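tool_call: predict_structure(chain=1)
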Amino acid sequence: MPIRSVSRTLLRDQAYLMIRDAIVAGEIEPGAVVRHADFAERLGLSRAPVREAFSRLVDEGLLESKPQSYTRVTPVVAAEVRDAAAVVGAMHELAARVAVPRLSGADVTVMRSANARFAQAVRTGDVDGALRADDELHGVLVRVSRNRAAAATVARYTPLIRRLERRRFGEGGTCRSAGLHERLIEACAEGDVDEAVRVTAEIWRGLEGLVDSAD
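tool_result:
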């Protein structure tokens, strides 16, 4: 079988994910100037996919660009995080309302496993592990809802929130609770749509204190 070349779209997406994750993790700090050539060399890519990834990150608010001058990482702005959290929270509530009646026992098991990993990660100060587990838990409802618009909105705006969450996790705090997750999971297991939506809203309201502390 002949070896197929990697598509340009795939390279663009790979570059996007790598640069986005580095920004969210704080490996590239707010205000840092970034250059196509530097990242192309670091990632072993041509400049074209990196340029396309930069354009997407500008559109999503993680980079800002002044033509013929600079492209740099945006600062963490509390008002922007608050706006993003409101939108993402609303999408998660919508996903919960649609998904709960469709959940299988296997879906609930995945949520329980994710919450166990979340709680363990919080106890041990594993920031990346906690956020991955949190994404997996809530991602079950988004996936099962089969609402592509909600999924796309969550994917687009969650990184803005994660930058601030990651900082707070790293400082020893957390706006999320394994206990709230457990209440959500029990509501899902019982098919209680209204309770699942209420707990989801409570989880996302927890971000308000996080954002306020950053003002």
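agent: Strands lie at 63-66, 70-73. Proceeding to next step.
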